[in-house]
Each structure stands twice: as C-alpha cells, then as structure tokens.
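Q: Two folds, back to back.
A: First:
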Amino acid sequence: MEQQIRTLTARLLASRSLPRTDALVRRALVDEAFRVDLDARLAAVGLQLIDNPYAAHVAVALTADVHEPVFGATREYAASNLGLTRDQLALLVVIWALIILPKRERQVNRQKLADDGQSDMFGKDGPLEHGEEVSGAIVEASLLADFAPVLGHKTYVQGKLLSRLAQLGFIERKGGMILEGPLLDVLLDYRTLADRIIYGTLGEVLAQAGHPPPARDAFTAPEPDDADAEEDD
C-alpha cells in the first residue's frame, strides 16, 4: 500500500488532477485506510485531496493554513492564487455558469444530454453520471459574439483569456467548441458560486426583465446519497 500511495501522490502532484475512474483514485475514494494514509501524506506538505462527487476528476489543493505563506507575497493573490487577471476570472465564471449549472441540474435529476426526462421512468434511481453524458459544450463563436465586446476583442479573448483557461485545465477547446476541463467542476465551489450567480447577478437580470427570480432550491445540488457513494466501489 505504501508504494501505491507514493505513486498516487506523485501522479497528483505531476498532473494536478486525475479522473475518478483511475484505479488508484477509485481506491482512495472507497478504501478508508488508504484514504487516511493518503490524506496524511498530502497534509505533511500542506496539501489536501479535493473530491467533489459530482465532478469527473479529483485534484490536489493547498490547505487553508498555508495559503498566506505560499501566496501572500504576490500581488496576484488578492484576486486569484493562479495569477488570473480580472477579465480571465470573469470569463471563467461565465463559462462555469454556462456549463456546470445545467450539468448539475441534469445530474441531480439523473438526466443525460439527450434525455428529456421521460425516456426512463426509473432514471432517478440510476447512478450519478459524469463526463460527456451530462456535461454540455459551448460554441466558441457564440461566446465570443456575446462577451468579446465586453472583455476586449475577439483576438484578445481567444489568445489571452481562453488559451490561459485551457492551459490551466479549466476548459478544453475542440473543433470550435468549449468543453469542461478536468478542474472546472472540482476547484470552483458550486454551492458558493451557484448561490451568488442565480440569486445575485442572474436574479437581478431576471428582475430587470420582469421575470420572477428562480426558486431558492431550484439549482441546489444535494449531497449524493448512499447509492452515489457506492458508485466508485
């Protein structure tokens, strides 16, 4: 077990994220003793495993007590410990809202992208889906048409903003489409962002348009039940 923990720790540090389907990741998610040892190994160097059951990947991040010692000396930390600029952060939140909010609704309702919710009467008893089954894509040209005038211009958004988000692993760009990257759902806190977007910014936009705000629990993603927890067995 020692060698497997060393291997998994090294791979997490080298890759920043790993899919939940990976054999050692799966063991970390279901084997309590293995997870305890892994957490201890990571904690010894100020790291923790980030595991969001709704995300298709796991990742490592700094523990709260080392944020300031590691990032406090740089000016960028005031906005982002990844050094993202304000316009990069703004676009990241927009993309997160366009991809992750509908994805989470599909996951909670056990719906796939091509499912209208009526094809399987037992769908809500099915396993929690990840990946392309539930995660949609954005047409890059449409995103540019909507937001490039606000964030600068098309070349700037493509070359400086989208390319940086792709480099960091938040998004993937394929064939003119923007897809969810391995870190988009696992590093951005859904409960914090969803609340601020849906009942904050989006609520204000709907109110200005004369529409009622969404119900308070409309997009609340509950903790996965026992069936979801056993999914990784």
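A: Second:
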Amino acid sequence: MSDRTGIFAGDDPFAIAMRWLEEAEKTELNDPNAMAIATVDAEGLPNVRMVLLKEIEGRETPSGGAFVFYTNYHSAKAQEIEGAGKAAFVMHWKSLRRQIRVRGIVTREEGPQADAYYASRSLKSRLGAWASHQSQPLASRTALMTEVARVTAAHGPSPKRPPFWGGYRITPLEIEFWADGAFRLHDRFRWRRADPASDWAVTRLNP
C-alpha cells in the first residue's frame, strides 16, 4: 500500500513484529514480551490470560513464521488450545502506543527447541514446572512448597523437561498492526491469508 510507510513499512509481517518488539524492549519497564492470549472452552466460552512470548520465528525458518510460548500441557489454556487448534493474542505497548493482534492455528513445540528453552530457565523455574499442577485446585501455599521440595529431591539440580510441559507455536492467519493516532484516528493495517501457504493481503482499516 502506498501509505504503509514508517513503522509499518516492509513486506514481511514477522520482521515488522520483531522490530516493534525490539523497540518495546527499550521502553517498557516490565515484560515487553507479555501478551494476552485468548482461547475458547468446549462450550465456546472465551478465556484470556497473560503469557510471555518467547520467540518470533521469521518466515525463513522451517515454520514459515510463527509466535512461540511455553506452558503446562495440562493447564486450562493448553486444553482449550488442543480442543480448538486455534488461538488469538494481543501485545500492547503503552510506552510506544502500539499493539499487535494475531489470530491463527496452533501446534505443539515439544522437541529439541522446547528442551533448549527449558534448560535456559533458572533452576527454580524448572523445578516449579514439575511441581505445579497448573490450573488445578491447590490446598495451600504450604502444599505447593512441599511439592517443590519433593520434586527437588527427586530430580536434583539438572531436571529434564517434564513431558507435560512444552511450547505452542501460533502460525498466524491474521496479523494487525495498530498505532495510536491524534484524535483517536489510529493507523491500522491488517495482514490476512487463507492458510499458511498463501500470500498475505494487506488492508488499511478504519480506526
């Protein structure tokens, strides 16, 4: 589009997203990679929560471009993702007055890439992944810490990645880049494709 210049310029949405995230890392005080991910349960009731984006894979990667985060596969979000095979998320950077919205299909990442990310985490976080039965009822904080002590004794200082913990790769069918405009006349560009093998169509949207 002739007026897609400046921060919106480029023919690769993943490169634009990477650039925006890099800029946010310089201005956001906490967790510039935080995103609100939305799913639906078996009854179609929406659910949303904050997670941390861990990687943006470029279009030159084997995935062809995707957004990766990690979680417990027994969690509510994971069960809803497995049921629908789809998810959406938004990243909002108040310091930049920008946001990115993504909708797409979701697949697991539970191979060497997940192992490498798990190994990069702090020991306490790795043990916490073993100890937490995410989204399940918890009797008390004391019960949780008792479980942490148990898995620490069981798995030692180099725990392997739990089989119930790993990544999800969101392959987008739609990406929207939004920037705040004067008098609420915001700039919005939507990238959309029918499937991951198709070309992107870019449309400017009304504020």
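Q: And?
A: Residues 13-27 form the longest helix (15 residues).
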